[in-house]
Amino acid sequence: MQDSSVSRRKFIQTTALGTAALGLPTLIPSSAFGANDRLRVAVIGINGRGQDHISGFSKLENVEVATLCDVDNVVLQKSATEFETKYKRKVKTEQDLRRVYEDKDIDAVSIATPNHWHALATIWACQAGKDVYVEKPACHNLFEGRKLVEAANKYNRIVQHGVQLRSSVAIQEAIKHLRDGLIGKVYMARGTVYKWRPDIGNLGNSPVPDGLNWDLWQGPAQTRPFSKNYVHYNWHWFWDYGNGDIGNQGIHETDLCMWGLDVGLPEVITSAGGKFLWNDCKETPEVLTSTYHYPKQGKVIQFEVRPWMTNKEDGVEVGNIFYGDKGYMVINGYADYKTYLGRNREPGPARNAGGDHYKNFVDAVRARDKKLLNGPIETGHLASSLAHLGNISYRLGRTLHFDPQKEVFVNDKEANAMLTRKYRAPYLVPTTV
């Protein structure tokens, strides 16, 4: 948004009031009031979560989804047609996000690409003067997360991490209960991700489909032949593009574990798991058990990823459980919590209430105030990094020791090499933003 929009709006309003005072009919349509501070948003990546971004921003007052962007032109044009049918207006389309960043009329971008694009897309947006709502995980590795924080600060941009539970009224209340000692000393958080993840087979390589810019889709990753196993969802299960389920659905839960325990990154990480069900081409584990230890704080995080058939934990398939010396708290999904107190597990406070994470972002953008954000990029870096640390421990097959202040492993060159990746020109995440 331009600063001059405020003065233009005041001029229109003053003129309209003056005309009314003279008893003459106004010639200014009501839709013009506030039009100059209309927030124009581009949604980048529209095949999955991007559809929710389109819907979420379109519901907000004085916010316009002005551009849709996707590397798959077939998906792009189909979505544009559906958009125009639903909202009764045209929308601009772009296949290359760089063209979006060149558009001076775009105020903010909403990023729902595959994981390996999140950081670079956000950094480029910050450099172009755009505010950013970025899907989870905020980054594909720890190095990228730190660069995101630096870019948001350097370019003074509003950057929201897409973990909507942070805007839930119920979850905010639950966190306050934890801080106020409702369940006593909170020493452990458990995150669970029990999702239906079937066999994806092995489709092998095949020609790139018409309309898909495969080079742009791969972006920062090293070049691979095209496979239908990657596009448009199962890229989650390949290390070049995704981070497994702990780095997919699990980011909501890693974020809440850290928020509820009031901790940063851990000092000791142990992970184990593997593929036990399907003989398919997934690279990431189907089952993963990770433990994150905070010896100085006397706290621990346990995290479980399981597929297919499994039990629930106190009704939870995807959620969190916090344990204290006076009770425990169960958080189911994004907007529901229950508490159980004492040895008899007497029901305590409970609530189910959501919130609007998109509106929270827009409110912060309008106020130019990062402190209004419920999911600032710093929390995105931490929540994503917790998942990445667990994955590194799993891939190396051993317990790791980490320095949370320096954000490096202790005397471990092999593990430290996995804090970043080899990037492919021209899609380079800059070491200096």
TrEMBL record:
SUPFAM superfamilies: Glyceraldehyde-3-phosphate dehydrogenase-like, C-terminal domain (SSF55347), NAD(P)-binding Rossmann-fold domains (SSF51735). InterPro entries: Gfo/Idh/MocA-like_OxRdtase_N, Gfo/Idh/MocA_oxidrdct_glycsds, Gfo/Idh/MocA_OxRdtase_bact_C, NAD(P)-bd_dom_sf, TAT_signal, TAT_signal_bac_arc. Residues 175-256, 357-427 form the Gfo/Idh/MocA-like oxidoreductase bacterial type C-terminal domain. It comes from the Bacteria. Residues 39-162 form the Gfo/Idh/MocA-like oxidoreductase N-terminal domain. GO terms for molecular function: nucleotide binding. Pfam families: GFO_IDH_MocA, GFO_IDH_MocA_C2. PANTHER family: BCDNA.GH03377, OXIDOREDUCTASE FAMILY PROTEIN. This is Twin-arginine translocation signal domain-containing protein. It comes from Rudanella paleaurantiibacter.
